Amino acid sequence: MLLEGKVSLVTGANRGIGRATAELFANSGATVYANSRKDGSLDDIRSNRLVPLYFDVTDAQATMAAIMQIKKEQGQLDCLVNNAGIMHGSQIGMIDANVTRSIFNTNVFAVIDLLQLAARIMKKQKGGSIINFTSIAGTSGSAGLLAYSASKGAVVSITKTAAKELAPFNIRVNAVAPGMVDTDLLHSVGEMRVATLITQIGMHRLGTPDEVAQTCLFLASDLSSYITGQILGVDGSAII
């Protein structure tokens, strides 16, 4: 029960890595507010430690209301997992400006907003853990994913900068950089592309959402009490 007595918010928790992380945190003793923008997508939750919270992370007012609800109901927020994200691929010369704005709204600006709101609570309680999601595309780049890679690269900078600024308050800020993980998001690129990607993974297989969730559990728990500003790759030795 590594998270016994802790309160967490996990965004994008209706499927994939977010769902696995929310469920693992709850099974590890935390009270978990599980976010999704799609109403009803978390209604199948059976754990009394998981609280569905429906809002769009790009809606600043809804995001603030959600954080205020957690503070009012729990009086604390010990861990924020900025998992919600979108991916869209286009070759250079075909990149749509509106799509790029949408990617940055979710993958970058929402992360900054949530980080700031969570930090206000964590500063007062003198501690907390913020876990952002970047990607192997954000640390190494990926052909055909310029806007997405740029957004995830921004998350790397956000993480390192916030870690420096918040360290005096005992707030740790780290990022997880998954490689190819068996999620709907990855399969949206097409099965032929996925098959090609697997050949570029040293372990010759896709990662699982549970394997990434275990990494988040480590970063959320006191096991990582002296770790901040790190970008932790979970990629099975992938090359893209």
Largest sheet: 7 strands, parallel
Helix share of residues? Answer: 40-55%
Oligomer designation: single chain
Task: Give the termini separation.
Answer: 36 Å
What strand line-up does the widest sheet have?
3-2-1-4-5-6-7
Q: At the fourth CATH level, what is the homologous superfamily?
A: NAD(P)-binding Rossmann-like Domain
Q: Indicate the mean pLDDT.
A: 95
CATH class: Alpha Beta
What is the molecular shape? globular
| CATH level-two architecture | 3-Layer(aba) Sandwich
Poorly predicted runs are none
Number of helices: 8
Q: In sequence order, what are the helices and strands, one letter per element?
A: EHEEHEHEHHEHHHE
Cα-based radius of gyration, to the nearest Å:
17 Å
How many individual domains? 1
Helix/strand-derived category reads alpha/beta
CATH topology: Rossmann fold
| Count of β-strands | 7
The fraction of residues assigned to DSSP E strands is 15-25%
